[in-house]
């Protein structure tokens, strides 16, 4: 019988952080709205460094505005900056949705963001007229940077978006709301694909797939400002109050779903991220439960293909191999469960958050695993580094930030999650769903083959 | 080719250049449609003596490409390889800027580690000084670094932690240099204020704090060279062949000790004049070290920069060696470049980058027979724009603090054959169908010196000639 050992942080400083601050999560969520723009109420660096990070990871432009707070704002408050910021953004970009994202500075100086938004709205009405002004929805998202991490910021944003924008109608819409979590465009597309095989329409809260992976198609009709293709349209977000149910695919973002449940009686379910066979099965079952739609043969074939690949590869190359996993709590929990399905041992899972839901998910994994699982909870990459020195593993799975550590320990690293800036394609290739499982098992196995099997002996490895 | 924006010429030029693609370009009376307050931030060189409005607050809500004061301080100090760079603030300030600078090191890797005091709600209410103190002691125990730089962020400025006092106390206890950098992000709209703070930290706490064992008669410091993608490794050998000893680069591939001992150098040469002129003039004041401004981008500029140093020392032998070195270095260079020049000749360039590069690259491009049609920068001061004016041709568009929407419009209007900028602008440029060359923190190829220039020519050539641009234009 295996155990889950939770190891908490015993250091003051954070060394090589695994998490970043709340506003980033909120900026990510707002970017998933069609013609949606985040407006960060803070210093210029608060938007610049996130835009830089998104550009580096997604290889796409990221339009995020900022109110450029300076010393005078620190003394007199940020009212002037916020009101003119909202006004300029409305006049020049005419977004459908503007997400006003607070930061540590605007939270500490105690700006009445809600009040300023009202004043800004009056200004917009004066300058642009009632009709034009009413087309621009403004969502207030409070994300003090010194509370929790970017996962909480994502959750706050999703809740603020549905609280502000969802509108109940008399009729149900036969759709399912999905809160995907901080995942890649490829993952969101795969979730939509799974839903389509279930003949189900989904409302993504929100859909960052096209905005962060947009076609290069110059055309004469293209208007300024340039908006990336896609994102969840405002109409669909409004309609999220009439859906059959809401599924959160990450344990850290369920307050939006709870809010919809409380206000509009829409049942909600927090599932594990659908990584691997069982988690994807659970997702499919939840969709079936909400919609009553049957599981199609096509879907069963996709599941069969993944199982086939597992049969081909797991016992030969993967069984008994020790894995270290780090990064996003929802992804790491899913990955830990998947490697367990492959017969690998998730020896250590390291996350930067202290989330009780995550610990519960990991308890489930430990129960399924044959060996002890250590969880580094609320920790950083240095903690994982020290751990691995004492307890070596065969492969690491996580983002690019662990690359130097992997090199030092001569342990191969398979890159997933955010940020990945030193490999290409990670944002396009899904890791969720049965197809994502195929990508994962191929990627992990090839990484293992590169390191542990001599090329000249490849025939022996068939 | 000179762009004359006021005449009909432009229409025909653009039409013939782009073939069947998007020929309907309206000739604007003004530069582009933008906010009223932003119109004066753009001007065309030669039209009058004016320079664009600059060094002002960005318009809130427009998507500025600017960074913050903390970012400015961090980029200057971060290349010091054997120091801990501890960010006193919420986790995001460290997490988003950790290891984003492509400065390489020939030794220590400590500077690539991300350190944060991770301020939480409780610290914001009760103050973060204790946490900072604990963190410094702990990090000193774990790493025994040569120095710990402590950067203050917006939060620290607002809650009023006295980081200077904490650093002083921690230094007494640990015996390790603990250097405060008062870089609250909101201090200024111009991140150059951060560069200055970083220079102040070095002047006040580092430079001159240790005596060198011996002083080379021909020793120099290279200031404002951050060894991005290993640029320094193309420069130092050149000076060494001349018989000049590079005491230290500030701050590329440097160590705390090297910088501490650099005050006896005979000469300071300044590469990035945006971030580091201030440091050079401070050193001139305090240590009477004379300063020469140099530029290692392009053959001509590199040659000038080598000669300037040998002429400064006035040693006949060295002058002879330098001329020989220059001759041998550029002997094969022209042929190498000619093959790129063939394709690049006549192509147009837009630069939107740090103020230094906005004019320092002009000569390099003219050596490739390319013409700058637009140059701009996020944080330019009047003197920077004067420099641009001195370097570019008549008709060049000069832009201050262009936001992402203006950038996209300008790129579409003027259709340069390449944009030189950093990563944030890169994908805006590509989406507008304009090839792009990275010239910022995260570039992966060294561009300095003679060999660097060949790399530069190759990278620009690759960007312009890659077949994707033919494909993307075929179908609209």
From TrEMBL, chain A:
This is Nitrogenase. Residues 21-448 form the Nitrogenase/oxidoreductase component domain. Keywords: Nitrogen fixation, Oxidoreductase. The keyword Calcium does not apply. GO terms for molecular function: nitrogenase activity. Residues 208-229 are annotated as: Disordered. The keyword Oxidoreductase applies. Belongs to the NifD/NifK/NifE/NifN family. It comes from Methanococcus vannielii (strain ATCC 35089 / DSM 1224 / JCM 13029 / OCM 148 / SB). InterPro entries: ChlB/BchB/BchZ, Nase/OxRdtase_comp1, Nase_comp1_CS. Its EC number is 1.18.6.1.
From TrEMBL, chain B:
SUPFAM superfamilies: Helical backbone' metal receptor. Residues 68-464 form the Nitrogenase/oxidoreductase component domain. One of its GO terms (biological process) is protein-containing complex assembly. PROSITE patterns: NITROGENASE_1_1, NITROGENASE_1_2. Pfam families: Oxidored_nitro. Keywords: Coiled coil, Nitrogen fixation, Oxidoreductase. GO terms for molecular function: nitrogenase activity. It comes from the Archaea. InterPro entries: Nase/OxRdtase_comp1, Nase_comp1_CS, NifE, NifE-like. Residues 323-350 form a coiled coil. Pathway: Cofactor biosynthesis; Fe-Mo cofactor biosynthesis. Belongs to the NifD/NifK/NifE/NifN family. This protein may play a role in the biosynthesis of the prosthetic group of nitrogenase (FeMo cofactor). NCBIfam families: nifE. This is Nitrogenase iron-molybdenum cofactor biosynthesis protein NifE.
